[in-house]
Specification:
Elements: H1 5-19, E1 25-28, E2 44-47, H2 49-58, H3 61-78, H4 94-107, H5 110-120, E3 125-129, H6 131-140, E4 147-152, H7 163-172, E5 178-181, H8 184-193, E6 199-201, E7 222-225, H9 234-247, E8 256-259, H10 265-274, E9 281-285, H11 291-296, E10 299-301, H12 311-318, E11 322-326, H13 330-333, E12 343-345, H14 350-361, H15 364-377, H16 383-393
Parallel strand pairs: 1-2, 3-4, 4-5, 5-6, 7-8, 7-10, 8-9, 10-11, 11-12
Helix pairs in contact: 3-4, 4-6, 5-6, 6-7, 9-14
Length: 397
């Protein structure tokens, strides 16, 4: 299970509902995937990754390729016309069986593995995270009675899924009892691309971060928590930090800390070297517990080129950090209002980002004011507030 925000929300939800008396099972599907979150005691972790690897290697490559090719062709030609024509939870006619065969050709053996597991261990309710897994869960539970909730995490108008997966969404989402998003912008994007009626907002819960008001504004240093991938805009952050170092005479105690790992880390380290700031940039890699870094930082920066509702931003606000975000995606702007509880800059603009960073670096009173306002804004994300919403979505009431 990777280090992303969706995975963290899954772990937080599993921990919470296990603690209040529900039996919780956490299923992961990726082969050779290290578990990068501490799993809660009492939560049963089912790792189907090894079974998925065996299923893929045991199937003939040519058979797999042919099935996928035919499935892509059929879905591209007839997929949209099948919405409403095939219906979940009823006896399948030949058209429905044919369309589901096409779906399996695209999603691979994941759905079959989940079907087999849930046949032996039938769930009462299922919550699925992330776009591909959502479609797999819909297919696996197509003819079953479990209450299924799928959760989308990114603005689908900027969707990076392959075309054949996107074509499956309006078809397979018919099976979901509730389709959720963690940001209003993501929910709006779902309305724009589907005709689904059962859409609901499911806000992210937050872990408790013990940072008292006395520490707000007294620390030094910029922080971001993100995977080292192009989407996260860490190259812009390093370039902006180099400008800040050149433009401030009071930067002796300040550094930039990057928490997270990914395929672009080596390139980002090289960029920091070229910008002359490598000695002031800390590349920490993945951290199981980021609370110590949140407690030590002064400013959290979110330079992403695309986001849903980033947990790292919410945790930073809850910890009392002054935050800087950009206007690339609507999710962060649902929590950050420029000048009130953070700063908002134009996206893909390293110069504007540098100006905002320099402004906060040189104005401790502004950091204090924004940090305290950010903490106040995040009170709505505590479990006592969110639990009734989650229970309603998951049909626990």
């Amino acid at each position: 299970m990777g280090a992303g925000g969706a995975q963290k929300v899954a772990v937080l939800a599993a921990e919470h509902f296990q603690q209040v008396g529900y039996r919780v099972e956490l299923i992961t599907l990726l082969p050779d995937q290290e578990v990068l979150h501490v799993l809660p005691l009492g939560v049963n972790h089912i790792d189907l990754g090894a079974s998925l690897h065996r299923a893929i290697t045991q199937q003939s490559r040519w058979s797999r390729v042919l099935h996928r090719w035919l499935a892509r062709l059929c879905v591209s030609v007839a997929g949209s016309s099948m919405v409403g024509r095939i219906t979940p939870r009823i006896d399948a006619d030949w058209i429905q069986r044919w369309m589901l065969w096409c779906c399996r050709g695209i999603v691979g053996p994941r759905a079959d593995l989940l079907m087999a597991h849930w046949r032996d261990h039938p769930p009462r309710r299922v919550l699925s995270f992330l776009s591909k897994t959502n479609l797999v869960a819909c297919l696996a539970l197509w003819s079953k009675e479990a209450h299924l909730v799928v959760s989308e995490r990114n603005d689908l108008r900027r969707d990076a899924l392959p075309a054949e997966w996107r074509a499956l969404r309006p078809l397979l989402f018919q099976r979901a009892d509730v389709v959720t998003a963690n940001a209003q912008g993501t929910l709006d994007s779902l309305r724009a691309i589907t005709s689904l009626k059962h859409l609901m907002l499911l806000p992210n819960p937050l872990p408790r971060v013990a940072v008292g008001p006395s520490k707000v504004g007294q620390n030094y240093g910029f922080l971001t928590i993100a995977r080292a991938v192009q989407q996260k805009g860490l190259d812009l952050l390093i370039e902006a930090f180099a400008v800040v170092l050149d433009g401030s005479e009071s930067m002796d105690s300040w550094s930039l800390t990057l928490v997270g790992d990914g395929p672009e880390r080596v390139g980002l380290e090289a960029l920091a070297e070229r910008c002359g700031v490598r000695h002031r940039v800390r590349f920490l890699g993945h951290c199981h517990d980021v609370h110590a870094e949140l407690a030590a930082a002064a400013v959290f920066v979110l330079p992403s080129r695309k986001e849903g509702m980033p947990n790292a931003l919410l945790e930073a606000m809850a910890a009392g950090l002054a935050v800087i975000v950009n206007d690339a995606s609507p999710g962060p702007l649902e929590f950050v209002t420029h000048g009130q509880n953070g700063l908002v800059v134009p996206h893909d603009d390293a110069a504007a980002l540098a100006r905002a960073m320099l402004r906060l670096q040189t104005d401790p009173q502004l950091r204090i004011r924004l940090g305290l306002a950010a903490q106040d804004r995040l009170k709505s994300q505590d479990w006592p507030v969110l639990e009734p919403i989650w229970k309603a979505v998951l049909a626990m009431e």
